[in-house]
Structures are given as C-alpha cells and as structure tokens.
Please model this.
Amino acid sequence: MKSAVPDDHAAEEAPLHTQPATAVPPVDGERPAPNANGNGADREPSTVVNLKEWIAAPAHKLPQVLSVENPDGGEKFTLAHCPFVPEHDGSCGPALVQTADGTIAFACSGPGCDGKRFRDLRDLVEPGWRGPVEVKASPEMAAAMAEVERVVGAHYPDRVDALKASLAVVAHNSFADHPQPISLVKIARAGAGKTMEVSWLLPDGPNDVLSESIYRVDNLTAASFVSHRADLDAQQLRNVDLLPQLKNKTMVTKEMAPLFAGKREQLTERVSILTSVLDGRGYISNSGAHGRRGYEEDINFSWIGCTTPLSADVLSVMAQLGPRMLFYFADRRRKDVDQLAAMIAKGDDTAAQRECREAVRDFLLLLHRAYPAGSVLGASIVTTEPQSRTIALWAEVLTRLRTEVPELAAAVAGLDTAAIGAEIKPEHAERVFWMLLDIARSSALIHGRDTLAEYDLGQVSHIALSSGVFARSVVFEALLRTPGGTATRPELQRLTEYASKGTVLSVMRELAALGLADFTEEEASNQPAMATLRPPFTELAAAPRLKAQT
Model:
C-alpha cells in the first residue's frame, strides 16, 4: 500500500528548478535568494499555507519572531534562532519568507542547515502534515514500550496488560482510517486499583503538553456532551459543550458508575445519547430552553473509563441500542489476611507510582510525536486471514454473550426454539468486529510493530470475554480450557469456582440458547449434565490469550 499524500501537498515537494527564478526575494541584506543550484535557503510553492498563521500556531512551538518585514509584497519573519539547531542564533539569519504568490523559503546560514527546506521544517514541527502514511516498524517505539513493561512490571505486574490496553485506545486516534470513536471501560470491584493505571495517563494540568491529546473528565453526565442549560446563552453553551473539546483526543473518566445506575428507563435514555455520540458523526438535540443545537461534523475521539461490575440489565440495554462500548475486566484476587499484613513491610507505594507515571508519560510523549492524530493508516498493519477469522469469532462470541436471554428461551434451550417463538437473535457483529480489529491494530502500533502478533489477539480475547454477561463469559472461558470443549456441571463448578450449582446450570442453558454450546441432560432431573462448545467456536480453544499476571 502506498502512502496517501494529498495533491495540494505534492506542490510543496516540487523540485527547485520547476519554480520561477524570481519567486523568492533575498532573505537578508547580504545573502541572495536561493538559486537553481540549491545554494542557500530553499524555496517551494505553498498555496495552502498562510505562513503568518502557521508560525503563530501554538502546536508548532517555533522560536520567537524577532521582526517582520514586507519585501515586494511578501512577508519575512526573522526568528530568534534556528528551529533545527538552536545554537544557530540571529547571526545565522534564521528566517521564513512567504512571497506574494505563496512561495515559502526557509533560510539559515549555520553549519548543517544548507539545503533545509520549509517542508523539512514541517516534518520537524508538524508530523503528519503530508497526510496519513503506512505504519512502519519502529524500534524506538518498541524500546519505549519495553521500558514501560519493565517499570510497571517491577511494581505492579498485574496492571501491565490493562495499562497496555489503555495505551492502545489512546493510540487509536493516530489512525486516519478509523471509522468511529472507540471506548474501553475497565471493570473491577471497588478497591481493586482499576483507576491506578488510568491515572498514569492524565496530564499535570491544562498547560501540560499531554492535555493536547488527553482530556480528563471526572464528573460526567450524558447531557454534558451538548448542554441545554437554561441559565446560559448560546455562546456560553458552546464554551461548556464537551463534545467539540474531545475531537482527536482521549477522554479519561475515572468513575463511570453513575452513568450506569438508575431505573431502566433512565439508563435507556443515557445509553441512547452515548450511542449517538459514539457514532462519531456529532450529536444534535432539542430542548424547550434552546431548541435545536449541537454539532453535525465528524467528531472522532477515544474514551477510557472505569466502573464497578455491570448488571445483565445494563448490558441488555446496551445490546439493544447497538454496540458502542467495549469492556475490560481489570479485577484481581482479594488479598488474604497474611498478604494484607505483609503490606506494611513494603511501605508506601508513592515512589513506585511516580516511577510508573513517568515511564507512561515518556511513552505518551513519544507516541504523539511519532504518530499524531490521523497520521497513519491502520489498514497498513499486516493482518493474516487466520488472524481476521479469530477476531471475527471473538466478535460473534461477544455479541452473543451480552444478548438478553428471556426465561422461555433458556427453558427450552436445545429444542426447536424457532418453531416455538423463543429464538434468540443477537445484535449484528460487524461493528464489534471493526472495533476489535482496531484495538488489535492499535496494540501493534504501541509495540512498534507493523504486523499483528499473538499478544494483540490476546487483548482481543480478553476484551471480548469482558464485554459479555460475566457468568456466561466465565463458563464459556472454562469450556475453552477443557479437552474438546466439553465439561460436566461439577467440572464447570470447579473450573469457575462457582459455589452455586444453580448458577452453572442456568448459564449452561443460556449458552445453549445463544448458540455457543450444547448440553446433554440428566435423565432423572432433565437438568443439564454436560456442556460442549459448538463449532466454529471450538476453534477459539487454540486462540492466543493473555498470560495470567501475578
């Protein structure tokens, strides 16, 4: 696949000899303008760049402009020092010039700057300006990820995979070809530390450079995206609307439980708003106070959140309104009394958390420098046909695991459910497939790879199982670990550590109703006695999985 370079950028790459000899005036009083041999500052036509506005853009972080002149109807901006070599001060004549016809020249007479062009400067301060390119293997990114693994693994080995899933969500914004926002919600019981690794992503305040890509929201309601507060006028509403502030950023919400609380009607209303927002096509709403208002342009972003375990009712509402959120089980085993008592010997972990935060920060700075928003093509990451099939199987499993199963359907599981009107019809899996594929590609990107690997598919499997009704996911995962995908009810109790026989029996029936497994009954009780995975889901027994961290 070739890199996609917009046509209007191609003009800026034109060879010097194709441009008019009189296009660029001298950039200082002594040295002539660049000539056809390429001596001195180079020049190139740029009809799409207003140099004055480009220099003023805060994101470019250019040296201070000392003076502005207007030679022959153009503009010359003399810089305090060379942006390539800061030691090249004013005596080297660092300057940018744009002539009346739009041609731009960069000048610096310092050693090593001969032949530097404006496009080289754009490469330095504006990565991705040429348009999205193919992903290439990056040893620098791989080394940065290895350092994150080393630091975090030394202090919190059970947080490494969850952290890398968060980093993959952040990296998702780097893709120019991602079709919609992506969201990943970490699920764990209170006190499990689910917000710890998420907090390592946060900027140190509004002036931190990370705030350009990470947006912290601690108190969120569905109405925050487009506000209709009666006490604010139209301009004030635009200033407080959350949605436009998220464009090409990652929103981090450390506590999302209030969004998933309340009665079913309230939950349905909230989730319907989230569904529209997570389509990435803006959001329009109406109210008596302000009428119709909102945003109709594409607004893509990523979202990382945390919550306590969700009820089957919540997952049911989300499945009915369309799949937009993915989940990540981030819980851990509870410490026993001896482990709790031993914590005093380790002491406070403030220093450990600081070290982890610094390692993650360094990684994020590199990520956004190497892969700014929309700068690379996710589709260029090599994905084999077997890998695509594995992701497709997990997408199908995910949609089934979170589908509502009415009592009648569970009761008659194993019979001709279509004939008696109890057939289950899960949501379509296409959207889930693309979201899981994007997660896998993002995982490859943060590891410095241009191909999918087993680890990326392991993250996919964990997310798929985390996004279903919890008990079903636990039993389904247990079946994947059994020979031939077959286990008796007592074996499933042992593998899942469920004390309740009734829970396992109920889930066995639900998996059958969902088309994920079959079961045989005990003759005396007509209760499920043995469950067996159905093809093609048996293939997932050999699929890559995350290794247990201790």
